[in-house]
Amino acid sequence: MEIKFFAATDVGRQRDHNEDNYLIDPKLHLFVVADGMGGHAAGEVASQIAVHTVCRAVRDNADVIERHRDEPDSAAARQEILAVLEHAMQTATAEIFHHAQEDNEKRGMGTTCSALLLVGARGFIAHVGDSRIYLVRQSQVHQITEDHSLLNELIRRGKLKREEIETSPYAKYKNAVTRAVGAYETVEADTFDFEILPGDSFLMCSDGLHSYLKESDVRQMVGSNASEAADAPKRFIQHANNGGGHDNITAIVVRIESPDPMVYASKAADLANKVTVLKGMPLFKHLAYKEIIRVLNLTTVIEFDPGEDIVAQGESGEELYVILNGRVRLHLRGSFITELGKGAHFGEMALVDRSPRSASATAVERTRVLCLRRSDFFNILRGDAPLAVKLLWSFTQVLTERLRKTTAELSTSRGELVSASASTVSPDDIVTAASADTPEAEDGVVNFEQNMGGADHDGGTAAS
To answer: pLDDT of 235-268, one tens digit each?
Structure first.
């Protein structure tokens, strides 16, 4: 894959100096955007320190990146590369913080910082603050970073609706961030990785741009090819200035090209299929695109031949399976239960329960499945609180629906059993039972049903 990139920054229409900074390292395929904050030009200093320190820290660990550049997909490789970005972000934070302690005029300075590192066919992100990274894929726009801002936190907690921001008392806090590089000696950074595809485009920008953007603007101005992307940063800056240019404006556009369109089509179709089947599951239907990608990162694809068992009744297991292609037969002690096709799933209770498998699953034809293990599912729950809430809420809904269905089936079965039992008794039997001088008879029909139930259990006439 070929990587092309274009960038620009502008002071805007209402500021007298530029506190944004960006840095691109073509050799490392590293892209960094920072938006500084603080008086007496401290914001400019903070953002400059951030981009250079992050780049230097990644460059110092270039051997780790090069070691995995050809095969960055293994779990170990991904964790090592993410650790490099985490270390870079923490190094920048400490350096800005200590610099501020030595200069009273710069105390409290900080900066947002968003870094994108491309290694082989994977993208790696470290992010702090309210600058953003957008992914444009197959004409769809996805914001793949989360704003660490007061307004976004209020929206996430349901205290504020996005369309109410301008008229709310919180409008004056639009620039307030909840995390910043350098404000303290350490910072909590979001780090994650994902598969990249030929044809993907990225927009990295400060809030001086994205506050004027709609998704349709991003899709239109990024363009659909490298020649259109070349002028995109200038178009974005012009767009923000036309909107008022209230802040500094920075835009980096990165375009992934492939010399082989067929490779792109095949990879894009495979990834789209994975996303579609996961989004179709009740457990994952409420997740945003970046959260679906986070789940996908923890799954593995397994292929089974016709007649091969995927799970066996009675064995312990910890995997959820989602069918990507093919068909699977579920059976219990040789008796057919049902057949599942593309998009169906089975084994979800194994994510929370160690009970043995209640049935067997066998591939009917050549079948590919996504496999998510309990340990990886728990890692998501422990490491991402907002995502954990969504998943646990969805799981609760799944279990509630199952309970309703089971209750309805039991109620129907009980009604059928009572009807079948009653149909075997003659009217004379009913009169005799109702007039019998016993405590049970005084309760009428309820105890009649109980008596008949007892008679059947003792060997009475069964329903035909």
So the answer is: 999 999 999 999 999 999 999 987 776 767 777 7
Residue 400 lies in a domain: no
- Phi then psi for residue 289, to 5 deg, are -55, -45
Q: Are residues 237 and 283 both part of a single domain?
A: no
DSSP 3-state helix, strand, coil percentages of the chain (rounded to 5)?
45, 25, 30
Query: 417 exposed, middle or buried (CB, 10 Å; 0-12, 13-18, 19+)?
Result: middle
DSSP β-bridge partners for residue 21 = 34
The reported pTM is 0.77
Q: Which has the minimum average pLDDT: 105-114, 259-268, 303-312, 331-340?
A: 259-268
Query: CB under 8 Å to 315, separation ≥6 — which residues?
Result: 356, 357
Phi, psi of 100 (to 5 degrees): -70, -35
Tell me the C-alpha distance between 8 and 279, whole Å.
36
Count structural domains, the chain: 3
Residues 330 and 187 in one domain: no
Locate 141 and state its tokens.
Answer: 């726009």
- Looking at the fold, whether 167 and 101 belong to one and the same domain comes out as yes
